[in-house]
């Protein structure tokens, strides 16, 4: 990796500062400040719906309606995904894109209370803050559109509505369909418990559902006639768990048994296990994946069952771009962090009491962390975008410091003004960063040059999920 805060990036910042005076981006900040309640309500509407991946019909429609009302041309149902869309404004280049997610997570719900309080009858929640993600990116896109229009700045702003990030790899199908081929740079953000804009990477990730088929029988009267599909699942899990000792330490393997039978006295003729495998490099991930596949086949052979695997999703790691991160970090420092009022401080204190070590991070929401290279341990389908277009991602403090994603604490804070304030930090930062890119061709060129260098001359993109169609029913 390149050294952080390179001299080239520093020189470019001086160019940006000089060029930006041609059309001040400050009106975008005024617009976002004046309309913060509007976008908070949009985010809250999506929070309330908490729709799962590829089923986000109402959430996607809300974002599309907002953008269409603001003069964007909206194309829906792109890449054969009903809830995916592209909203565009402007003509020619550069083409600067923002991403918007809006899917919730299954199996977890929470009210806005600062203690554990599930919502009866609701079994999904925005535990990763994608309601804020979608609404915040929409706010930024509208602010940029208005600024382009008011100042006659050439170029195109696009917002990509990207469904099913949580295990559905919606963006991968959009990349595969060539929808990013003419984009010059992608700006993206994610809810978090801190404010940071780093040249970061992530883990490549691949998943599949392994379905074992056996022969049912009475487990007491005629057990010899049965062949347990659950035995196949358990044998596979046992072998994969032994394999953990002999794979690179930065790898991650996890699974859940999604079907294991219905009654102890019936030998199950069907069982299913859902696996995720991760590694920083796609090539190494594929090697580990081959061993997991071999374990499944061996388990089936040893238990007298059969097995089939359906690949559900696959994501490349994030390709960092220091040039873009340096600009975004500078703009984030200008915007600053989140300031809690008295009520928010009281809420945050109660949330922090439920999280080990959170008290030590008090006040982190108001600070911008220094820029550094980050090896993230999560995975995202933004990774595939980043191998096609120079991409930068920032984090904004939408959660109480110390909060982990995929938790009830994240849902709770994300449904309050704490989450809304962090969302607007992200919207303002992305809008300012976009203005820099629109007004400095040298900056766009430098980001592309770094992108080409990091990707390498011989890079040939192959989706880790292969040629399968989008799994539109994977959350049903």
From TrEMBL:
Keywords: Hydrolase, Signal. Residues 1-22 form the signal peptide. Residues 465-476 have a biased composition (Basic and acidic residues). GO terms for molecular function: dipeptidase activity; para-aminobenzoyl-glutamate hydrolase activity. Residues 206-298 form the Peptidase M20 dimerisation domain. GO terms for cellular component: cytoplasm. Residues 452-476 are annotated as: Disordered. Gene3D superfamilies: 3.30.70.360, Zn peptidases. GO terms for biological process: folic acid catabolic process. Pfam families: M20_dimer (PF07687), Peptidase_M20 (PF01546). This is Amidohydrolase. It comes from Parahaliea mediterranea.
């Amino acid at each position: 990796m390149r050294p952080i805060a390179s001299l080239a990036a520093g020189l470019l910042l001086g160019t940006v500062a000089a060029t930006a005076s041609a059309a001040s981006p400050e009106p975008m900040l005024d617009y976002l400040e004046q309309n913060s309640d509007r976008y908070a309500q949009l985010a809250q509407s999506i929070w309330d719906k908490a729709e799962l991946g590829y089923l986000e019909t109402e959430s996607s429609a809300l974002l599309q309606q907002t953008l269409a009302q603001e003069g964007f041309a909206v194309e829906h149902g792109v890449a054969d995904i009903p809830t995916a869309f592209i909203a565009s404004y402007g003509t020619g280049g550069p083409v600067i894109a923002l991403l918007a997610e809006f899917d919730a997570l299954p199996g977890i719900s929470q009210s806005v209370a600062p203690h554990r309080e599930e919502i009866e009858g609701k079994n999904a929640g925005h535990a990763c803050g994608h309601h804020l993600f979608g609404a915040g990116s929409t706010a930024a896109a509208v602010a940029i559109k208005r600024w382009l229009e008011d100042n006659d700045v050439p170029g195109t702003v696009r917002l990509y509505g990207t469904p099913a990030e949580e295990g559905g790899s919606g963006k991968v199908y959009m990349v595969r369909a060539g929808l990013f081929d003419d984009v010059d740079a992608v700006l993206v953000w994610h809810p978090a418990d801190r404010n940071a804009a780093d040249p970061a990477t992530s883990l490549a990730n691949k998943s599949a559902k392994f379905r074992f088929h056996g022969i049912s029988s009475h487990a007491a009267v005629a057990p010899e006639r049965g062949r347990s599909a659950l035995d196949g699942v358990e044998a596979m899990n046992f072998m994969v768990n032994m394999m953990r000792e002999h794979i690179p330490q930065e790898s991650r393997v996890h699974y859940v048994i999604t079907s294991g039978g219905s009654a102890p006295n019936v030998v199950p003729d069907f069982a299913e296990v859902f696996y995720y495998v991760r590694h920083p490099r796609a090539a190494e991930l594929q090697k580990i994946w081959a061993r997991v596949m071999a374990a499944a086949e061996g388990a089936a052979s040893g238990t007298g069952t059969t097995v089939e695997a359906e690949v559900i999703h696959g994501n490349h790691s994030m390709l960092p771009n220091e040039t873009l991160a340096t600009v975004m970090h500078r703009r984030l420092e200008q915007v600053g962090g989140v300031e809690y009022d008295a009520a928010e401080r009281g809420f945050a204190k109660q949330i922090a009491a439920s999280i080990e070590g959170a008290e030590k991070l008090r006040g982190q929401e108001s600070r911008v962390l220094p820029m550094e290279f980050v090896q993230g341990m999560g995975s995202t389908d933004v990774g595939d975008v980043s191998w096609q277009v120079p991409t930068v991602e920032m984090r904004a403090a939408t959660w109480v410091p110390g909060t982990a994603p995929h938790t009830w604490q994240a849902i709770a804070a994300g449904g309050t003004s704490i989450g809304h304030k962090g969302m607007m930090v992200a919207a303002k930062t992305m809008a300012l960063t976009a203005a820099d890119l629109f007004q400095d061709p040298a900056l766009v060129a430098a980001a592309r040059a770094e992108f080409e260098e990091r990707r390498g001359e011989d890079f040939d993109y192959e989706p880790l999920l292969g040629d399968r169609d989008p799994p539109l029913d994977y959350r049903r």
